Amino acid sequence: TMQREVEDSSLPHPTRARQVGMASVVPKDVEIGPEAGDQLFEWRDLSVSIGGRTLLQPFSGHATAGELFAIFGPSGAGKTTMLGALTGDREPSTGEVLLAGRAFASASRRVPDSERRVLLREVAYVRQRDIFMENLTVQDTLDFSARLRLPRELSHAAKRERVSAVIRDLGLEDCAHTSIGSTMQRGVSGGELKRANIANELLARPRVLVCDEPTSGLDSSSALTVMRMLRDMARAEGCALICSIHQPSSQIAALVDRALLLAPGGRVAYMGPGQGLHTHLASIGYPRPEGYTTVDYAMELLTNHETARELVDRWPGPHEQRTAAAPSAEDAGLGRGGALTFQPRPAGPDFCEQAAVLMQRQVRNARGTLLARNEVVLNILVGLVSGLVWWQAAADPSGAQPGRRRDVLGAIFFFLAHMAWWPLFLYLFSFPAERAVLAKERRAGSYSIEAYALAKSLSEVPQEMVCPSLFFLVALPMVGFTPAGAAVMWAVCLAQYQTSAGIGMLVSIIAPAGDSNMVASTAMTYQMCAGGFLISPSYLPPALRWLPYTSVWHYSGALLTRAAFGEPDENYSQLGAGLDSVLLVLFVVAIKVAIYLALKFSRKLEFE
């Protein structure tokens, strides 16, 4: 597959463009992407500072359609910072970023959110980290992405054909039905994952494609293949391609149309034709020694403080950079009137379609989380263990056998504990990966937070019932509960599960990554200890006797003991079955609302 890609990507540009053929799947009356030569991506006096420290010094530049603009520089030179500013992830400290003459990021004025969103949909960002749902296949990932991002006017068949074309052109046929995978689950290779990341962004035919070190983690052959594909696709699709590359080979460097060389501290040491770097270095007294590539030699010069400062000083200042960076009207695609044309993309799927697609994706992804084999086996085994320990403890509901009432209370407490701690940590450790996907797709404007929250709530409720039902199907008959009592146990514990899973998800959204375990454990410990089983509320200090009423365990325990003994235990709620049920449901609803608000306003869903 890799050899075939190298051969295909080496074809002359017109032939390659005909092979790509992606525009053929789009109806003529639907405009979803650019034509080659009519787009300009520009930044003026752009700089970024954080906490008084300047990460990127002010400079201007541009990238035109169909060209590969490469950013070179050692670690700490500000490459990722610059890409973040160009893609709207990081606000500029000075200057502005424009697409087709319209600013979507500016330090001097506020760009309306509606205009910013429209423009950012034209700028695709392939991040250094490949962020996907780990349990979906490559085919599934691209299918769902196409359904969420392509115009609603396109038929489902046209979207599928678009996906097939991208898979074919990026050489992903052999791994299309392989799961993305993770560090704990085997999936596609690093090169395949990087190409899947690129394919995901190319689906929408962006006007600007920005890639943060697309060759990182790849061997030299795979890196060359990826860069050739990117260059050929940019020319065929007519989009501006901007890539940061840490240590390019001579073959990759030969693909570059225009290059930017950044010195440590975000200072410009060169910006111009890709093949002009060698001439520039020689002209200032640094001819390339034998055995070095031009970029490797430049990197070595920049690691030395004195030579780096000289390279920066010998390069023109901001005014000259702007003059050198400004393209001619013909190169920029300007019409006779001197204005760039810009046509917003057709509308994507509406709210209902977004929610429907997201529900399908959540169901498909749950195979590796809520319905994972280890979770199913865990609940069956725990059900067997608890059934054996409390064998037929509830078979004597009258409590005639001494101590059996206490045994049943112990079983009830264990059921509640299992339906609290297990889902808490299940969501606490599984949701962060999904949160990263949500942050990426939210930035791309693929769907609304409301559609995601609704889809997740509706799609996961049936799946969340599977493992708890298996647990109770095994445990409750062994413990000896009647069918009516077992039904109440099942329903109440499902509500307990929903609340605890919600707490885990909420904490993973709002708490710092390193503190989420501590925060979640503390919150659940409070809920458990204040519930009433471990200490009678009557023994609490008078000023603290309100604590049990803030614990979901207090109401769950009352309903379960009522189902077991006909009346609630004295340590649990005495408000009555009806009010206890209402309050239990209100806990679930309150957690769901809190999750929605956290998703809507949390800054953790914004890339830093």
Description of the molecule:
By secondary structure, the protein is an alpha/beta fold. The chain contains 23 helices and ten strands. The protein is 52% helix and 11% strand. Strands 6-7-8-3-9-10 form a six-stranded mixed beta sheet, with helices on both faces. The protein has a four-stranded antiparallel beta sheet with strand order 2-1-4-5. The chain is elongated, with a radius of gyration of 30 Å.
Features:
six-stranded mixed sheet, 52% helix, single chain, 608 residues, alpha/beta, four-stranded antiparallel sheet, 10 strands, disordered N terminus
Summarize the entry for a quick read.
The chain has 608 residues and is of the alpha/beta class. It has helices at 2-9, 13-20, 79-86, 113-120, 138-149, 156-169, 190-202, 220-237, 250-254, 277-283, 294-303, 305-313, 318-325, 329-332, 351-365, 373-389, 404-443, 449-464, 466-479, 483-510, 516-529, 552-565, 577-601, and strands at residues 40-50, 53-64, 68-72, 94-99, 102-106, 123-126, 208-212, 240-244, 258-263, 267-273.
Strand content: 5-15%
Helix content range: 40-55%
The residue ranges in which pLDDT falls below 50 over 5 or more consecutive positions are 1-39, 318-340
Tell me the Rg in angstroms.
Answer: 30 Å
Number of H- or I-type helical stretches: 23
Report the end-to-end length measured between terminal Cα atoms: 36 Å
Structural class: alpha/beta
- Identify the strand order in the major beta sheet: 6-7-8-3-9-10
Shape: elongated
Largest sheet: 6 strands, mixed
Average pLDDT reading: 84
Strands, total number: 10
